[in-house]
Every structure is written in structure tokens, then in C-alpha cells.
Amino acid sequence: MNTTTSSTLPASGERALVLGGGGSTGNAWLIGVIAGLFDAGLDVTTADLTIGTSAGSTAAAQLAGATPTELLAAILAAAPHQRTAPAGSDRARGPIKPVADHLERMRTIIASADDAADLRRRVGAAALDVDAASDGSWQSQWRATVASRLPSERWPQRTVLVTAIDAGTGEPVVFDRHSGVDLVDAVAASCASGLPYRIGDHPYLDGGFRSNAENADLAAGYRRVLVLAPFGGRSLVPLEWGTHLATQVDELRAGGSIVETIFPTSEDEHMFGANAMDLSLRPPAARAGFEQGRARAAQLTEFWR
């Protein structure tokens, strides 16, 4: 098995689409934005390069096997999900507890880390410790869950990069169709934020740990870069580490790329971050993304084409 490294990444191209991580609601919002653009006549799924991280890797794989319109319709038609607390209560408006716990653990690990590389090693070590105490059943269950979300298990012919990190070493990893890894496994690894997902003998974790939830730096050399970021470019790590999306966008522009970004509006931010795994928020997140996509389509058409 080979994983893509920086030396084998596409060096340059015309159009790159960056799909950032953002949990379940982030995935729905990404699909909504792309469907809104598509509905208004702009098809960004024809990008020469698509970079998918975590929920964005799921979206990238979904778009390889279905149209944006079909994917949006499936989200809106899904059976409604209930929150974990009664509607209108303080608990219902607050974050779902497992997500809040995860964010608190991450803040603790970040506070003890020296830099991004040290953070990756520490996150990997913590995940492996949890994995050692588990019964191992999560692996097959998670793969089945991810497979059920994908319209096709085949890598697309267009270049799609799926990010992750090696939990054993903390090293960044990028999968593509030449990596000898099934698309389902690549996406499962990119979305594994708690327990590590193993491909062969190698344990992997969420691609958001590589640098940030977007990993837009992988689009270096592409003339036009469109970044869809459910988390709005926010990051828990110190700015001086140089891994924030804003820093990567500045570097892309300095390298000659024209970069456009789409973030959720301030009115919709409550559906992401700590509430990112609230399944009841998927339909409104998708609808919000759809309206944003339609609203931005005219302005982005000249940029993209």
C-alpha cells in the first residue's frame, strides 16, 4: 500500500475544490452549497482537483457517484432525527455532550503540545490508548457506516485527495486512487476522530489533524481555488503555528492562485462546531448551504470558468 506524499501530489492545474471538515451538519452544508451552485448553473464538481477532509472527504466521495441535486434531495427526504434534549430547553440549544467532551479533550492536548507535529503525535498516541482498551468491533461497524453513505465505492477518475494522519507516527497522509486503498477505507480514515481506523497494519485518524479542517495548502499550484469551510476557517490551535486556513489562503494567493471562500453565515453558525454531530440539524444546514450557493453562483461563475 502506498500513500500519497507531498512529492507525488499534483504540482499544478486549473481549478481546485476544497471541501472542509465539519461533522454531519458540515457534510450537509457542503452538499447544499454545491447543489445551490449547480441549481444556478455552476457545476464545481468538474474541478481538476478535489481535496476532501473528514466530512469533506465524505462529500467528495458522494459527489463522485451522484449529482448534487440527488444528494441534497436525499438529505431533505431523510427521516427526521430528534435532539438529545427537549426542544427549547437549555440543553437542546447547547452542544451534544460527546462533541463537547471531544472539544475539551482537544483543548487539553493542544495546550500541552509544542507545535502542529507534536499535536499530531499526541493525538495519535491518545487515540491508540483508547483503541487498546476497546473490543475492536468499531472498525467493521464504522466501515459499514461509511460505505452506506457512498453512492459508489469506486474512486473517481478526476483527482480526489483524501486527507488523514498516521496515528502511530503523527505523519500527515493523503490518499488518492493510486494509493492502493479502497475509497471507503480512505474516507473512513479521514473521518476517524476518536478511535483510529486501521488499513492493513496502519492506524489512521481524522484528516483535520493534518493541518486544519480544510487542508487548502494541497491546492498549491492551482490557478483557481474554491474553499468551502463549514467551520468558517476557525481553529483551536495557536495562530503562530501557521496552520490556520487564513494563513494557507494567503500562501496560495502569494503563489499566484485566485482563491474564493464560502463560510456559513453568522445566522447559521450554531449548526456547526459543537453541534456538528446533531443529525436533526442536517436538513436546515443543507437548506442554508443551498441558499448560499445560489446567492454566490453569479459572482463565482466568471471566477470558476
From TrEMBL:
A motif (GXSXG) lies at residues 52-56. SUPFAM superfamilies: FabD/lysophospholipase-like. The keyword Lipid metabolism applies. A motif (DGA/G) lies at residues 206-208. The active site is at S54 (nucleophile), D206 (proton acceptor). It holds the Pfam family Patatin. InterPro entries: Acyl_Trfase/lysoPLipase, PNPLA_dom. Transmembrane segments: none annotated. Keywords: Hydrolase, Lipid degradation, Lipid metabolism. The keyword Signal does not apply. Residues 18-220 form the PNPLA domain. This is NTE family protein. It comes from Agromyces ramosus.
